Amino acid sequence: MIKLIKIFNIELEINYSLIPIIILGIFFGFIKEFAIVFTIVTLHELAHSLVSNFYGYEAKTIELFALGGVVRSEEISFIHPKEVINISISGPLLNFLFFFLGIITKNILLLEMPLLDFFNYANLSLGLFNLMPIIPLDGGRILRAYLCNSMDIKRATYTTVFVGKVLCMIIFVIGIILTIESIRGITLIVFAVYLYFKNEKEKEIVSLQHIQKVFSKPKGLNEKINVKVKYIIAYKESSLKDILKDLSIGYYCIIRVLNNRGKFIGELTEGEILDAVIKYDSLTTLGELLNNKDAKYLRR
Question: In the chain, fewer beta carbons within 10 Å around the N or the C end?
Fold first, then answer.
């Protein structure tokens, strides 16, 4: 990572993957166009950073790499979806603002300015591209935040990932069709593959975040006087891994266990589930855990 400068106390860094792009730009004589794109992407990410800081999520670094840029900041809470939407949409809105300013400037000057045309095209393209509902693009984060108004973050992420996968496949097919006529179609194929795997990776990230929040929940519960209770009905063959996915962040969960005939055979608290995850294998079933629990009480 190459550190450049600090802008509003936010570190601007260049990933090593960007160096070959710079070299190719110089070699083929596109250094001016590269400088324009570099500036536009930096300002796009800076817009995200400043709005993020406004809402209290400290943006620490902006990293630019071969396929775009990313802001490294404190974890953004999805408790307030409107904040997430405003942070995510700020980058594309800045691009559209630059696009309209560029169009106005061209109409006022009435001159042929290829670099200004490229500036306008780059801003419009970057703004529209980032609004596609594919994580990690801004559009994907906006869609997920909107869905968080009616469902939990995990379900919202899984739904958004599904939409993103479908769009990536469509872009991939379009890229193949365009490649038959022009080599430029390869760019779409590369972006489709990259976005597909980044989009899919988000499911693993949100699952890990969910588990971390569940394990840190007891500390938060100690600070509350009244706690909402959620009952989960599960069969004895269900594993700890299965139940862990269903534990909700805002509730204290109690698991009521049924046998194969649907008869109630026992009850486990969320605390017992979390203790068991640490002590036993995650594939341990609820039936086995109930048996261990009964044996422990018999020994007493």
Answer: C
Q: What is the mean pLDDT of the chain?
A: 82
For position 75, what pLDDT does the model report?
62
CB 276 within 8 A of CB 244: no
Which sequence spans correspond to the domains of the chain? 1-131, 133-220, 224-299
11-15, 85-89, 288-292 — most confident range: 85-89
Tell me phi and psi for residue 225, to 5 degrees. -85, -45
pLDDT in tens, 221-241: 455 455 677 888 999 898 887
Burial of 106 from C-beta contacts in 10 A (0-12 / 13-18 / 19+): middle
Could you tell me the strand order of the sheet in which 264-269 lies?
Answer: 229-235, 252-258, 264-269
Q: Which CATH architecture best describes the domain 224-299?
A: Roll (3.10)
Choose among 237, 267, 239: nearest CA to 254. 267
As a whole number of angstroms, the distance between CA 169 and CA 164 comes to 9
